[in-house]
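Chain X:
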Amino acid sequence: MKRALLILLVAAPAWAHKPSDAQLHLDTAGDHLTGRLDIAVRDLDAALAIDDGDGEITWGELEAAAPRIASYIDARVSLASCRLVQGTPALVELSDGAYLSTPLTTRCAPRTLDLTYALLFDIDAQHRGLVHVGGQTVIVRDASPVRIDVASSTSLRSFVREGIWHIWIGFDHILFLLCLILPAVWRRDSLRDSSVEVFEIVTAFTLAHSITLVISAVGLFTLPARFVETAIALSVVAAALNNIVRAIDARWAVAFALGLLHGFGFSSVLVDLGLPSHELIGALLGFNAGVELGQAAIVLAVLPVLYVIRRTLAYRTLLFAGSGAVVVIATIWTYQRCFI
């Protein structure tokens, strides 16, 4: 039974908004720290080649690789002032599949942790370490040492950065936004007129995804990940097709209607962080602010260029041929997210 469950969990698809991550939990327990480290089984396999080649990672293969896994963790996760002692690992199911959960303890409880976290960065540049210490969550994106004050609360800035990063690596969100603003300079006499239309589009998109981001992240209403990711890909198809065959002139309405779907995609990022309830409001505010700053930077960089070339063959090629290419790309995404 355990073998069958593990195979099923590892075979679960990775979604477009789910980066590789691992979760480190540490809490003060008297004169020492206690916690656990959760690493996705598929990521351990990518780092250590646990699978024997048949495409199925079994519990027996994990047990056989246990010494290598322990050494891998020892070499890449450490505290400057306390040694992390590993316990007996167990298999757990998180939102995106099977994780190996390793208990951790120390023999001291410093008020400031100098943490070195270097898991998986060499095989996945987008990997993130989600470090939960006491009442805060720290997002680690590279192997540089991190200093964490145990008594501090979660930094709002870390979630602002996470929102900016997410929008910049979210190619489906970027293509959706670009398809909406691309026609804004078409037959416009002034940059001001184009900017007004883009402002309406971005405001509608922001309002829509903020609504669904909040209601989904706090658990009021959620949708299956496969449905959300497939629908987001379809929204990109719809936005691009509207540039080729103008069905709806009010692109702000398109931005609002389809932006509701993107909010569910954004919320999955916060849900995957495993935040405690007291951190959720700050995380929501920071992450949403980061998303807005990220998309504002894209608009400010793209809009003046589009306005300058609006009467050229290059712009018409970009508008029609570029939108056609986006239709093809997003259609492929739709198939992959729905059936693979």
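Chain Y:
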Amino acid sequence: MRASQVTKTKREGQSWGIRKEAEFDALKGGGGRTFAGAAEHYLATVSATKRSLEWERRRFAAMAEHFDGMSLAEIDSARIGQWRDHRLQTVSGSTVQREANLLRHLFTLAVDEWRWLDRNPFKGVRMPTHNPPRHQIWTWQLIRRVLRADRAGKTAEVMRAFHVALHTGLRLSEVLAGRYDPARRVIELERTKTGGRVLVPVTRRAARVLPQTFTVGANEASTLFSKLCGELLIEGLTFHDARASALTWLARRVDVLTLARISRHKDLKILLSSYYRESAEQIAARI
């Protein structure tokens, strides 16, 4: 690389030369690749194979704004820490953890597979703790308020998806993409969060609200559901809480291994701590 600059004094010229040499060394360390270019390569070679492509595209776009114009070699642990602190001003620790996992994987591939870097800038960076597990559960009063709302179009589709989730424990994206087989009374999911093709058994009650067809996408559906809850003055509850509500109710009817088969949790600790939300008072009232 070559660069030139006319300065008024010899000292200014020497200072400029030192800075330029440092910049060239930084670019050489990452093969001259910028963070934005690395993100595009990741999206094309890694994200394209996953369900979370659009989410990862949006996250990389936001990160590229923070690391605007930086080469990969310029991003060190201090800059990662600045990004972490900046995100914590507007989002929760769990969100930062999830985004950091994406960013960390990019740098891991840049070091171990692509050979673009010789060190991972995440080494030594502290990450915030996850949020405490949610405890909210949908009550039948609030469920009726959602299901009886007078809405049409895609919002009505989201309401039907919510109804299905309450009976099956499926995630929003799974409700929209799953294929119901009435002969076997199972829902087939091709690509799930845990990976691979799985068959999810459904209860007889759930079979009454299936099958359903949907044209709305998962991201749009999530936005529409949040908007609907706001219009209905429902606070502190999300669509994903329907999954926890369904699994909490199913826990009264099936054993824990059957419940784990329905929910597809490999770690029973997660099922207990995050998705089984019956309170101690509720348990005491029925034993």
